[in-house]
Amino acid sequence: MSAVKALNPKAEVARARAALAVNISAARGLQDVLRSNLGPKGTMKMLVSGAGDIKLTKDGNVLLHEMQIQHPTASLIAKVATAQDDITGDGTTSNVLIIGELLKQADLHVSEGLHPRVIAEGFEAAKDKALEVLEEVKVVKQMDRETLISVARTSLRTKVHVELADLLTEAVVDAVLAIRKPSEPIDLYMVEIMEMKHKTDSDTQLIRGLVLDHGARHPDMRKRVEDAFVLTCNVSLEYEKTEVNSGFFYKSAGERDKLVKAERKFIEDRVMKIIELKNKVCADTKKGFVVINQKGEEKYTFIEKCGNPRSVTLLVKGPNKHTLTQIKDAMRDGLRAVKNAIEDGSVVAGAGAFEVAVADALVKHKPKVKGRAQLGVQAFADALLIIPKVLENTNHL
């Protein structure tokens, strides 16, 4: 303790039981913040930054990212929960609730003299049994469009209101199915989420192609082309800066003109190669389809009605920035939920049914665990019931 004080005189030091109590208190505090978020009837939270910016959300991942968490244990729990969101796309709020409840149940036994290590052994045994139960209760089925719509709807209804969730569900499922390739992993980067501050959130739609947030690059370009060939390339058609900062001294204006012509010729050569390729591939056809729409002061280019699109765009519309951000967050979670369902090929019951099934199995499994670790198994089972309890308290069940 003296060494810590020497390094940081302002440091707060707590020993054993007191330190454990502080950590459990931090976890339960985080749990209390997110408790009312769970489920489709969860409440919205308003976050106000130091600069006065306002964000409305009920997404646990967004809340954990935006909140300024000072306590190290609470910060660690937030990182664990957000890591799960990065992998699975959802479950952040449930994760925090279960962690907080596990520590709460552990605190009850520790206060009666049980060593934390014994509880940890019970938790480990309960985790192994829970994974076995998961394999038993999961429903393996063909992931047809109807099933995927149910999966997406379950995720989206926890993020936005019911009417909007039902509208977004089909767009999200169709977007994933459009980019899906047989026997290959689904790449969600092929689904672009483009926002447009225009009309209402109910005008959000799936574009089977691309939407670019700019119009024509030149006023003389055609505004509409049907049945077009589209070339995508990774070379620039603009003047490029050198990697090393350098300067030039001209002896005359003629030398400067020569440099400008050389730069221009470099770009013109690239353009001529593209035109040459166009003549070979497209022949003399005048096919194409490019539409440039102007919404207010902003212009958008639509490339749609593609025969077999391998990249699609979810065009999010809304009257303000808050609505657009909320829909984008919901869509990301919905996309990953559909992707996971397709890749796993199985689903489990929702609304706390899975947690109740695991808790029941753990209670029956407890007598098979040796020694006082049984108390840890029971604590794990009781902690899982926090999910159906919270859903019931928020009028979901």
Question: What are the key terms here?
Answer:
single chain; 397 residues; alpha+beta; GROEL, domain 1; GROEL, domain 2; four-stranded antiparallel sheet; three-stranded mixed sheet; 13 helices; 11 strands; 12% strand
CATH superfamily of the largest domain: GroEL-like equatorial domain
Report strand %. 5-15%
Mean model confidence by pLDDT: 77
* Biggest sheet, spatial arrangement of strands: 6-9-8-7
Q: State the helix count.
A: 13
Report the CATH architecture of the largest domain: Orthogonal Bundle
Helix and strand succession?
HHEEHHHHEHHEEEEHEEEHEHHH
Radius of gyration: 28 Å
The general outline is: elongated
The rounded distance between the terminal residues' Cα atoms is 50 Å
Q: How many distinct folded domains? A: 3
Beta-strand segment tally: 11
Largest sheet: 4 strands, antiparallel
The CATH topology of the largest domain is given as GROEL, domain 1
Q: In which range does the helix fraction lie?
A: 40-55%
Question: Could you please describe the fold and organization of this structure?
Answer:
This protein has 397 residues and is of the alpha+beta class. 52% of the residues lie in helices and 12% in strands. It has 13 helices and eleven strands. It has a four-stranded antiparallel sheet, with no helix packed on it. A three-stranded mixed sheet has the order 4-10-5. The protein has a two-stranded antiparallel ribbon with strand order 1-2. Helix 8 (162-179) crosses helix 10. Residues 288-295 have low confidence and may be disordered.
Give a summary of the structure in a few sentences.
The chain has helices at 2-7, 16-35, 60-66, 72-88, 92-110, 116-137, 145-156, 162-179, 253-282, 321-344, 353-365, 373-384, 386-393; strands at 45-48, 54-57, 139-140, 191-197, 205-207, 210-212, 224-225, 290-295, 298-303, 312-318, 346-347.
